[in-house]
């Protein structure tokens, strides 16, 4: 009587209560199943078989079904299921192939009811018929499924899958006679319980074993399957050919899948290996789980929704020997943590940026420049009324275009090509690089190189006159070169990127220059000038006038009216605490850069910083001459490298790192180094400087970087005779059995450098082909193809 | 078959004797070559010379000079440092660290713990990454079992290699070879037959008796149902018995000079699973099996390899021509399963759903001796052992048995290693 009343409250009033909780089991669980009254749960495993009642605050052990002293393999459960009609009836599948039923109504301590020992191998799954009281189905490793009538001693019918092991069997909830079975070879079969001779339908659902399946509780004919190939697929089997309706890609093989009650598109999954979390997916949103439960410390082996009409309680058992109740409202929602912004470069330096609409809208309200050279274009996605994630569904896409003129980064390309990084004494390398930088008009960089030489090379080798000469020369030629160098051109590409990355309030400044040779801001209107250091903008975003902005960049100059501004110094830790030249020039430049000074005027004063830095050099030089070891400067050099990297000039950072090698490496943490290397290599590859990037990879000492050279080294080529792809097994074509690497000019096998035409697959010795194509534009093999050599 | 040879030749630039023997079973060979090619030549976390060096380390554990020589050449060819070949202590610390795992894996894989794994992964600058480790483990197990195959089938060195053109015993222990590798297949068949002629009637009955037993087992399986305790004890019995099954001539073979340099510890050999003092819990396949767990882990850390190995296991396990000696249309699945499970039993791996009594019925003593020797101490196999089991069976069938042996061994080693890695990760 008591039992009855509890059931009615649970079903009628839907008054399930509880909290997220867990209890410790004595042994790892293999499967769990819930009683239909939603108040008890059975946990089964190799050495555990217990019933727990679910109280509001905790799990309480009610019954241990493992009785008797001797452990029997019959009790080593692979699966357990609780009858949904009769709460006294349970069935377990044992790893030794036995199917056992249990009757909780038995008066004795041993509740074991019947034993079916018909399967020859492990039974993977048992399943009660949802409506029939006495019908039990089992699926086993031996490839058979058996249907038992609990009133009889043996099976009623046997279904042979005619293929490999059965991993799961499930009665359809809607169709009385139908059940689905999944197999180790990737197939799913649908059977009619009345026809054991052959299956109604079979289709291949996954690549590799299908570990689980679940019928949709409401949608007739929807079947979810999960496999070792890390996919969850939803099939519509009402159509003549089973149709894949949805597909969710998870990160590990899927061990269990269960539809969420009352939520048509939700299902819960857990994985077999590696990943311990339980995910609830919205099948229409297959990339981000709707919810995630992270309580378990080892793989989850069983999941069950507590009540067939309550979507908020999920129970789970795990290999870490715990039983958990998860509340949906306590789940973590990965969507909230996702970054709904995307940024991508186009082929010609265009930049596309997608973000939440709310974010972009507030910003676009302030944009005063309609006819500017950047053209934000907005797309708006239409809202799907069924979409539960309305807040995120709308996004805006902005596309920024660059002005024509591809040479804006030519300094980068030139520098990359001409720098010498290894193979000569340090002094020579530094001199060479300084020369390169100077010729490209990057005086600050040039001076940095010169200083590095002074610091690290023995002073006897560097006559001071020579030094003075080189620096003096640098300063004298600085002005004309800077002028010839178009600073504005390179701004949009880099500048807009930083702005989008860092802040939203920064859009006013039209051109932000990130070149470290002279951090100089020119604005076409000359109205608002800002530092490129965006954090400054954050700190003092409310400052109204130009003077204050200037003040920001010039903390040395104390402003009498606003003495409370001490914050700005934090934004420029590198600039003022050290006596290092790199910050010198720009510091002074900024000072000289009055709000209304035009770009060229700013250039004109660039002589000043050079002078000042020169004096600094002499100071450090004398210091060194006296007694300071090179180690003394390592902190300075480290800060200098960081400064360059933060300025966006990873080229400088990486080059110095390589040239100085062991001298500074230990001072800079591995991760930062790796980060610089990867960014520099990425940049080089964008500019197609493959050789340089390869050299950098080779010279790098970081393991993660140097192994880049070893990845994806395969080259796909066609056979030059039959024009079919080579099978990847070396130099003999698999189809025409001829050697594919013949030189088309001299007809010898090529060993060493080989050049191939991608159009006609003919090729040969590099020198031969080069020579041939100087005289003729046709392929030397006579195929008529117009080969190009570049 | 021709195409297979061509592929193999194109990939390796040679056609080794292993390939020539395995081609008895072209379906398997194809999968084998594909896997080996992928492991040694395709994209992977380890540099090429490391891969060959690990192969050398693994083969040297079993004193398999054939494989060692083969890979010494490859190792030098891909630019490996010849100094390393003077011994493990000349190799980088990282590879030296792997020595311990190699040793345990080859001889007593059940002793692998997550501490071993942790030791490799957390060794400061000499540490392995998980992906590298999985690659190394797959290579080690591959070469351990390939060494078994080399000895089991008596692969002789290539004709152009040292010892290839002499009639001296080809490898360390003195046994002859089935010579198929050198082309005089028929001669050899006759030799074997004449050797077995003495008891030709005996061996004829051998096959008959085996078939009879299989039939019996098939029929009475449903009737006679052993009790739980009996089933459990049968596993224990089989396990215990397997340790008494050993080749009668247990004399110590001194390892060949050129190979021994890779040993640090020759004394460390196979010890029976249950003999030595400490108790190691039985490994239950139902709790950690290749299909569900091992595959997922390998494929996650070393993509595509899981798939290739899985295919290889599958082919080896299911390979059958439905023949037994002179009989046709025989269902050999029972026999194959018995062999497979017997090997796993020797490694302490238990299938809950298998009646280990079947093994006793199906595998006779001389066969067990052969299996045990090949799997545990392949360097001690003799020609006599090869001849004395299953006398009426064809060479191709004996090679088939060898394939089963090496794949079962590889899986057993992999299972232990991967379980340790999984435990480390959780």
From TrEMBL, chain A:
<dbReference type="InterPro" id="IPR036322">
    <property type="entry name" value="WD40_repeat_dom_sf"/>
</dbReference>
<feature type="region of interest" description="Disordered">
    <location>
        <begin position="580"/>
        <end position="599"/>
    </location>
</feature>
<keyword id="KW-0458">Lysosome</keyword>
<dbReference type="GO" id="GO:0005765">
    <property type="term" value="C:lysosomal membrane"/>
</dbReference>
<keyword id="KW-0479">Metal-binding</keyword>
<dbReference type="GO" id="GO:0061700">
    <property type="term" value="C:GATOR2 complex"/>
</dbReference>
<dbReference type="GO" id="GO:0006914">
    <property type="term" value="P:autophagy"/>
</dbReference>
<dbReference type="GO" id="GO:0016239">
    <property type="term" value="P:positive regulation of macroautophagy"/>
</dbReference>
<keyword id="KW-0072">Autophagy</keyword>
<keyword id="KW-0472">Membrane</keyword>
<comment type="pathway">
    <text>Protein modification; protein ubiquitination.</text>
</comment>
<keyword id="KW-0862">Zinc</keyword>
<dbReference type="GO" id="GO:0008270">
    <property type="term" value="F:zinc ion binding"/>
</dbReference>
<protein>
    <recommendedName>
        <fullName>GATOR2 complex protein WDR24</fullName>
        <ecNumber>2.3.2.27</ecNumber>
    </recommendedName>
</protein>
<keyword id="KW-0808">Transferase</keyword>
<dbReference type="InterPro" id="IPR037590">
    <property type="entry name" value="WDR24"/>
</dbReference>
<keyword id="KW-0863">Zinc-finger</keyword>
<dbReference type="GO" id="GO:0034198">
    <property type="term" value="P:cellular response to amino acid starvation"/>
</dbReference>
<keyword id="KW-0677">Repeat</keyword>
<dbReference type="InterPro" id="IPR015943">
    <property type="entry name" value="WD40/YVTN_repeat-like_dom_sf"/>
</dbReference>
<comment type="subunit">
    <text>Component of the GATOR2 subcomplex, composed of MIOS, SEC13, SEH1L, WDR24 and WDR59. The GATOR2 complex interacts with CASTOR1 and CASTOR2; the interaction is negatively regulated by arginine. The GATOR2 complex interacts with SESN1, SESN2 and SESN3; the interaction is negatively regulated by amino acids. SESN1, SESN2 and SESN3 convey leucine availability via direct interaction with SEH1L and WDR24.</text>
</comment>
<feature type="repeat" description="WD">
    <location>
        <begin position="116"/>
        <end position="158"/>
    </location>
</feature>
UniProtKB/TrEMBL annotation, chain B:
<dbReference type="InterPro" id="IPR006730">
    <property type="entry name" value="Sestrin"/>
</dbReference>
<dbReference type="GO" id="GO:0071233">
    <property type="term" value="P:cellular response to L-leucine"/>
</dbReference>
<comment type="similarity">
    <text>Belongs to the sestrin family.</text>
</comment>
<dbReference type="GO" id="GO:1904262">
    <property type="term" value="P:negative regulation of TORC1 signaling"/>
</dbReference>
<keyword id="KW-0560">Oxidoreductase</keyword>
<protein>
    <submittedName>
        <fullName>Sestrin-1 isoform X3</fullName>
    </submittedName>
</protein>
<dbReference type="InterPro" id="IPR029032">
    <property type="entry name" value="AhpD-like"/>
</dbReference>
<dbReference type="Pfam" id="PF04636">
    <property type="entry name" value="PA26"/>
</dbReference>
<dbReference type="GO" id="GO:0005634">
    <property type="term" value="C:nucleus"/>
</dbReference>
<dbReference type="GO" id="GO:0016239">
    <property type="term" value="P:positive regulation of macroautophagy"/>
</dbReference>
<dbReference type="GO" id="GO:0070728">
    <property type="term" value="F:L-leucine binding"/>
</dbReference>
<dbReference type="GO" id="GO:0016684">
    <property type="term" value="F:oxidoreductase activity, acting on peroxide as acceptor"/>
</dbReference>
<dbReference type="GO" id="GO:1901031">
    <property type="term" value="P:regulation of response to reactive oxygen species"/>
</dbReference>
<keyword id="KW-0963">Cytoplasm</keyword>
<dbReference type="GO" id="GO:1990253">
    <property type="term" value="P:cellular response to leucine starvation"/>
</dbReference>
<dbReference type="GO" id="GO:0005737">
    <property type="term" value="C:cytoplasm"/>
</dbReference>
């Amino acid at each position: 009587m008591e039992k009855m009343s509890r059931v009615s409250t649970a079903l009628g009033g839907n008054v399930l209560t509880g909290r997220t909780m867990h209890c410790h089991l004595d042994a790892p669980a293999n499967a769990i199943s819930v009683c239909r009254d939603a108040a008890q749960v059975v946990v089964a495993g190799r050495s555990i078989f217990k019933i727990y009642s679910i109280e509001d605050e905790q799990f309480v052990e009610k019954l241990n079904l493992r009785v008797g002293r001797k452990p029997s393999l019959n009790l080593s459960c692979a699966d357990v299921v609780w009858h949904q009609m009769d709460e006294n009836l349970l069935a377990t599948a044992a790893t030794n192939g036995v199917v056992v039923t249990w009757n909780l109504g038995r008066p004795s301590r041993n509740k074991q009811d019947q034993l079916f020992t018909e399967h020859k191998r492990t039974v993977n799954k048992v399943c009660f018929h949802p409506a029939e009281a006495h019908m039990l189905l089992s699926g086993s490793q031996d490839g058979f499924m058996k249907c038992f009538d609990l009133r009889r001693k043996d099976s009623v019918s046997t279904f042979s899958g005619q293929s490999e092991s059965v991993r799961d069997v499930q009665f359809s909830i809607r169709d009385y006679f139908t059940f689905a079975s999944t197999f180790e070879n990737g197939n799913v079969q649908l059977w009619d319980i009345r026809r054991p001779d052959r299956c109604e339908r079979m289709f291949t659902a996954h690549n590799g074993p299908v570990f689980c399946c679940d019928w949709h509780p409401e949608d007739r004919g929807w079947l979810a399957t999960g496999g070792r190939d890390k996919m969850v697929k939803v099939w519509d089997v009402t159509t003549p050919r089973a149709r894949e309706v949805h597909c969710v890609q998870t990160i590990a093989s899927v061990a269990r899948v269960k539809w969420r009650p009352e939520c048509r598109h939700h299902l819960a999954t857990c994985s077999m290996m590696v990943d311990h979390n339980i995910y609830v997916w919205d099948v229409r949103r297959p990339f981000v789980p709707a919810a995630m439960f992270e309580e378990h410390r080892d793989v989850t082996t069983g999941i069950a929704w507590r009540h067939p009409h309550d979507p908020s309680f999920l129970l789970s058992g795990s290999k870490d020997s715990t039983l958990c109740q998860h509340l949906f409202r306590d789940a973590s929602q990965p969507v909230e943590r996702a970054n709904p912004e995307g940024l991508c470069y186009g082929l010609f330096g265009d930049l596309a940026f997608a973000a939440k609409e709310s974010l972009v809208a507030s910003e676009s309200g302030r944009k005063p420049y309609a006819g500017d050279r950047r053209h934000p274009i907005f797309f708006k996605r239409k809202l799907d009324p069924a979409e539960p994630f309305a807040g995120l569904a709308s996004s805006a896409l902005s596309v920024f275009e660059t002005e024509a003129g591809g040479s804006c980064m030519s300094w980068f390309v030139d520098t990359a090509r001409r720098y010498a990084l290894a193979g000569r004494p340090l002094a020579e390398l530094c001199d060479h690089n300084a020369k390169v930088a100077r010729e490209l008009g990057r005086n600050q960089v040039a001076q940095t190189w010169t200083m590095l030489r002074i610091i690290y090379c023995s002073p006897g080798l560097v006559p001071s006159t020579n030094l003075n000469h080189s620096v003096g020369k640098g300063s004298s030629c600085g002005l004309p070169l800077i002028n010839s160098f178009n600073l504005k051109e390179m701004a949009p590409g880099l500048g807009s990127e930083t702005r989008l990355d860092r802040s939203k309030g920064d859009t006013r400044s039209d051109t932000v220059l990130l070149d470290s040779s002279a951090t100089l801001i020119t604005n076409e209107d000359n109205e608002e000038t800002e530092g490129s250091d965006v954090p400054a903008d954050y700190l003092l975003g409310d400052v109204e006038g130009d003077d204050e902005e200037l003040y920001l960049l010039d903390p040395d100059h104390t402003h009498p009216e606003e003495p409370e501004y001490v914050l700005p110094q934090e934004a420029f830790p590198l600039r003022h605490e050290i006596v290092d030249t790199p910050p010198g020039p720009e510091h002074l430049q900024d000072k000289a850069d009055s709000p209304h000074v035009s770009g060229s005027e700013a250039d004109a004063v660039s002589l000043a910083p050079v002078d000042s830095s020169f004096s600094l050099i002499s100071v450090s030089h004398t210091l060194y001459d006296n007694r300071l070891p090179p180690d003394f400067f390592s902190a300075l050099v480290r800060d200098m490298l960081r400064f360059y990297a933060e300025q966006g000039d990873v080229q400088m950072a990486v080059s110095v790192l390589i040239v100085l090698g062991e001298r500074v490496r230990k001072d800079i943490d591995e991760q930062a180094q790796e980060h610089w290397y990867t960014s520099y290599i990425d940049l080089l590859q964008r500019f197609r400087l493959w050789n340089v990037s390869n050299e950098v990879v080779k010279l790098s000492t970081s393991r993660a970087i140097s192994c880049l050279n070893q990845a994806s080294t395969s080259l796909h080529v066609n056979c030059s005779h039959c024009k079919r792809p080579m099978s990847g097994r070396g130099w003999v074509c698999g189809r025409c059995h001829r050697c594919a690497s013949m030189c088309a000019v001299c007809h010898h096998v090529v060993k060493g450098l080989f050049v191939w035409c991608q159009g006609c697959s003919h090729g040969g010795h590099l020198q031969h082909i080069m020579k041939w194509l100087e005289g003729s534009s046709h392929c030397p093999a006579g195929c008529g193809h117009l080969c190009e050599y570049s | 078959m021709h195409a297979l040879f061509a592929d193999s030749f194109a990939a390796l630039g040679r056609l080794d004797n292993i390939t020539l023997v395995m081609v008895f079973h072209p379906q398997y060979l194809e999968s084998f070559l594909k896997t080996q090619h992928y492991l040694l030549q395709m994209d992977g976390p380890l540099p090429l010379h490391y891969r060959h060096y690990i192969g050398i380390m693994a083969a040297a554990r079993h004193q398999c000079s054939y494989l060692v020589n083969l890979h010494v050449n490859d190792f030098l060819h891909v630019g490996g440092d010849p100094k390393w070949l003077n011994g493990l202590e000349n190799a980088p610390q990282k590879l030296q660290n792997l020595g311990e795992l190699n040793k345990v894996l080859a001889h007593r894989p059940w002793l692998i713990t997550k501490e071993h794994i942790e030791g490799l992964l957390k060794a400061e600058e000499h540490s392995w990454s998980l992906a590298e480790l999985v690659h190394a483990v797959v290579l080690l197990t591959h070469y351990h079992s390939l060494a078994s195959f080399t000895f089991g089938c008596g692969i002789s060195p290539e004709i152009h290699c040292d010892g290839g053109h002499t009639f001296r015993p080809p490898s360390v222990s003195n046994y002859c070879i089935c010579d198929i590798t050198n082309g005089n297949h028929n001669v050899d068949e006759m030799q074997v037959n004449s050797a077995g002629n003495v008891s030709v009637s005996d061996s004829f009955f051998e096959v008959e008796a085996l078939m009879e037993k299989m039939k019996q087992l098939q029929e009475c399986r449903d009737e006679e149902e052993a009790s739980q305790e009996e089933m459990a004890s049968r596993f224990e019995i089989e396990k215990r018995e397997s340790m008494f099954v050993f080749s009668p001539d247990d004399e110590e073979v001194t390892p060949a000079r050129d190979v021994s340099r890779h040993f640090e510890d020759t004394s460390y050999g196979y010890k029976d699973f249950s003999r030595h003092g400490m108790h190691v819990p039985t490994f239950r396949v139902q709790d950690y099996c290749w299909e569900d767990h091992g595959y997922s882990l390998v494929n996650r850390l070393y993509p595509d390899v899981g798939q290739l190995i899985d295919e290889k296991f599958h082919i080896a396990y299911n390979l059958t021509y439905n023949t037994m000696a002179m009989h046709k249309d025989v269902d050999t699945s029972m026999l194959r399963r018995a062999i497979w499970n017997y090997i796993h039993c020797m490694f302490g791996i238990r299938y809950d759903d298998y009646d280990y009594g079947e093994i006793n019925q199906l595998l006779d003593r001389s066969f067990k001796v052969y299996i045990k020797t090949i799997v545990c101490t392949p360097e001690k196999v003799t020609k006599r052992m090869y001849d004395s089991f299953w006398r009426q069976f064809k060479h191709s069938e004996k090679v088939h048995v060898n394939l089963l042996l090496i794949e079962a061994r590889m899986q057993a080693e992999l299972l232990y290693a991967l379980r340790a890695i999984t435990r480390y990760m959780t």
